[in-house]
Write a structure and sequence with these properties.
Blueprint: E1 6-11, H1 14-22, E2 27-31, H2 46-58, E3 62-66, H3 73-89, E4 93-96, H4 99-108, E5 114-116, H5 125-133, E6 138-140, H6 147-156, E7 161-168, H7 180-185, E8 231-234, E9 242-245, E10 247-248, E11 251-252, E12 259-261, H8 266-271, E13 276-279, H9 286-305, H10 311-320, E14 326-327, E15 351-361, E16 366-371, E17 375-376, E18 380-385, E19 388-393, E20 397-399, H11 401-405, E21 422-423, E22 426-427, E23 434-437, E24 447-451
Parallel strand pairs: 1-2, 1-13, 2-3, 3-4, 4-5, 5-6, 6-7, 7-13, 12-14
Antiparallel strand pairs: 7-12, 8-9, 10-11, 15-16, 15-24, 16-23, 17-22, 18-19, 18-24, 20-21, 20-23
């Protein structure tokens, strides 16, 4: 009997873990201090990891610890010491990639369940068979595989769990096998400190450019002169295979991959033998978690039941959140230039996150929100929760006098809008919580978005 399909969410910190569970995660993956590939962004410590384990297990969810660095000699001993702490917390599995560390863990902790990280670049069935015989229970397949290849792997090695990334950012190299970050900023992707140099702005200059032409590439020059004509890259041994290259006043982007989105292919992926559908993004926001969850949870539920899902409606959820344009990657063939977003290192999205609901005054239909981005009277807003999408107009903004006096005060109410509050025309992120009109009682873990004017 096939194992239940799993929707696996990132958890960058304890609060994001809770949002992931609320928006439909069956399991989450969380980085351990020092030894995961998001070491610089990881906000977990041992205390909050323990709380995360308890939170997941008390709700019938699973949690996997990500410990997928490729270690240098100096990190082997501290890793093994840290693993004793990990074991004491009793996660459901560990995501690892370093063969040496896996070997040591299997020797000392033979009952530890290990999932092989995508960082191990798992591209063929022989690799999967090799790892299975070493005791690996699940393999996270490389993003570079096609559906046909995934299906063959499952057919050749049917008694091991398969997991793939179905949504999120894509590395322009095989995962973690890029030295750009090392070269430019001395930050090693395989030590969890990638600086994402592939997404930086670069400028194209003609040979022997004058000093005047070499202006600051991070600026936005008002006198920028648009390049005329078309430009291409050609590799010496691949004559005739031209790669388009372009620049605007923002720079040049030749390695800036689009984001992966496999929402339309969940049934085919499940039929190929995959049981875990993974979302990328431990450093992403609450808004990202909400949007992805509202799309993939109902879609995967429909696949589990053998039903169709409304792709057009659900795709609105993923296009509402920040993205660089979407691609199915290699799943259905080589995407070629469609995998790269050449225009600029910005994102498409239809709604901006502006607040997180902190409390609600049902009598006055006012919500206390933690303001994340600017709001103004007259804005078209959206109340979003795991079960709600409510459009409304922002008419009222009230500031609590207690918070104006002391933004960190614990005396300010969460369920009563202050009758003596200060009326405002606008609000800004990073200052104080504000009260705004919200027509319905928000569910727990609700957020507020603002509709963007895409015509500007």
């Amino acid at each position: 009997m096939r194992k239940k399909l799993e929707l696996l969410f990132p958890a960058g910190n304890l609060e994001k873990l809770k949002y992931a569970i609320a928006y439909g995660a069956d399991a989450v993956y969380a980085g351990v201090p020092m030894f995961s590939l998001r070491a610089r962004e990881n906000q977990f410590n041992w205390k909050t990891l323990a709380e995360g384990v308890e939170y997941c297990h008390s709700r019938g969810k699973e949690i996997y610890f990500t410990a997928n660095i490729y270690a240098h000699n100096m990190k082997i001993a501290p890793f093994m010491k840290a693993f004793e702490k990990m074991e004491a917390l009793k996660p459901d599995a560990y995501i690892m990639s370093d063969p040496g560390l896996i070997h040591l863990v299997r020797q000392k902790f033979p009952n530890a369940e290990i999932h092989l990280s995508v960082q191990a670049n798992n591209t063929n069935w022989a690799q999967i068979q090799f790892w299975k015989e070493l005791g690996i229970s699940r393999v996270i397949l490389s993003r570079e595989l096609s559906l046909r290849e995934i299906k063959e792997i499952h057919e050749k090695v049917p008694d091991i769990e398969l997991e793939i990334f179905v949504h999120g950012a894509i590395c322009m190299a095989y995962s973690g096998r890029c030295l750009l970050s090392n070269y430019f900023s001395h930050r090693d992707p395989n030590q969890g400190t990638c600086s994402h140099s592939c997404r930086w702005e670069y400028k194209v200059f003609k040979k022997d450019a004058s000093p005047d032409e070499l202006y600051d590439s991070t600026g936005r020059p008002e006198d920028y002169e648009e390049l005329t004509g078309e430009f291409y890259l050609e590799e010496r041994e691949r004559q005739g295979e031209l790669l388009p290259i372009d620049e605007d006043e923002y720079g040049t982007y030749i390695m800036n991959s689009r984001d992966s989105c496999l929402l339309a292919y969940l049934k085919e992926i499940a039929d190929a033998g995959v049981i875990s559908f993974k979302i990328e993004g431990r450093s992403k926001t609450f808004n990202y978690i909400a949007g992805v969850g509202r799309a993939y949870r109902p879609a995967l539920d429909a696949v589990e039941k053998g039903e169709e899902y409304d792709m057009e409606t659900l795709s609105e959820e993923v296009f509402a959140i920040s993205n660089r344009g979407y691609t199915p990657g290699f799943l259905v063939g080589n995407p070629g230039e469609k995998a790269i977003y050449f225009e600029k290192n910005l994102d498409y999205h239809e709604e901006d996150p502006v607040g997180i609901v902190q409390g609600y005054d049902a009598k006055n239909k006012m919500a206390r929100i933690m303001v994340k981005n600017r709001i103004d009277q007259g804005d078209e807003l959206v109340l979003l929760s795991p079960s709600q999408r409510v459009n409304f107009k922002l008419d009222t903004i009230i500031a609590d006098p207690i918070l104006l006096e002391d933004p960190k005060s614990t005396d300010a109410s969460f369920d009563t809008c202050p009758p003596n509050g200060e009326s405002r025309q606008s609000g800004h992120g990073g200052h104080i919580d504000l009260w705004i009109n919200v027509p319905e009682v928000p569910d727990e873990y609700a957020i507020i978005r603002k509709k963007r004017n895409l015509n500007v």
